[in-house]
């Protein structure tokens, strides 16, 4: 979903072709390599978006001794679908790193709605942690005591960290910093 949001958001700015977007992702930081985005995956997503009517080819650039470049534009259907995809990304994201493409494209959505989604997510995480932390006092066999302590510490730290950064994200969105 992130790749599709990336493509649609780039086409909101200007018509483009797959190879150029791949180059933009690889410079100056090789985000394409870090994210495992190959050229064939990018072309696959362009093709998929075109089949759904979200983008359309608008031009073919021909250069001597070079392959033709098919330039795409976003359709009105694509413009309608982009915010829906971004909201869905926030709803499905388990961690903030899953939200990066959505955060980079907040200008295409209502931030109040994003905050609402994130606040619901925060309530769910806190409720889940409250429920799990009740098991802290459960009797365990002596040989499993160390693993229980380790896991308790790990999950406690991880959950506190998640809650902290989700609250921080919500606050920064509300203040217009992101």
Automatic annotation (TrEMBL):
GO terms for molecular function: DNA binding. InterPro entries: Tscrpt_reg_PadR_N, WH-like_DNA-bd_sf, WH_DNA-bd_sf. It comes from the Bacteria. Keywords: DNA-binding. Residues 7-82 form the Transcription regulator PadR N-terminal domain. This is DNA-binding PadR family transcriptional regulator.
């Amino acid at each position: 979903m992130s790749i599709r949001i990336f493509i649609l958001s780039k086409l909101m700015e200007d018509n483009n072709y797959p190879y150029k977007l791949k180059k933009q992702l690889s410079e100056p930081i090789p985000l394409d390599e870090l994210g495992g985005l190959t050229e064939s995956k990018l072309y696959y997503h362009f093709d998929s978006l075109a089949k759904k009517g979200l983008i359309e080819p608008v031009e073919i650039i021909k250069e001597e001794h070079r392959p033709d470049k098919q330039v795409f534009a976003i359709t009105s259907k694509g413009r309608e679908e982009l915010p829906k995809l971004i909201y869905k990304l926030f709803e499905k994201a388990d961690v903030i790193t899953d939200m990066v493409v959505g955060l980079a494209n907040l200008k295409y959505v209502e931030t109040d709605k994003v905050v609402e989604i994130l606040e619901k997510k925060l309530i769910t995480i806190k409720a889940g942690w409250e429920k799990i932390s009740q098991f802290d006092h459960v009797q365990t066999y002596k040989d499993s005591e160390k693993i229980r302590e380790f896991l308790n510490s790990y999950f406690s730290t991880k959950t506190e960290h998640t809650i902290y950064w989700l609250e921080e994200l919500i606050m920064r969105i509300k203040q217009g910093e992101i």
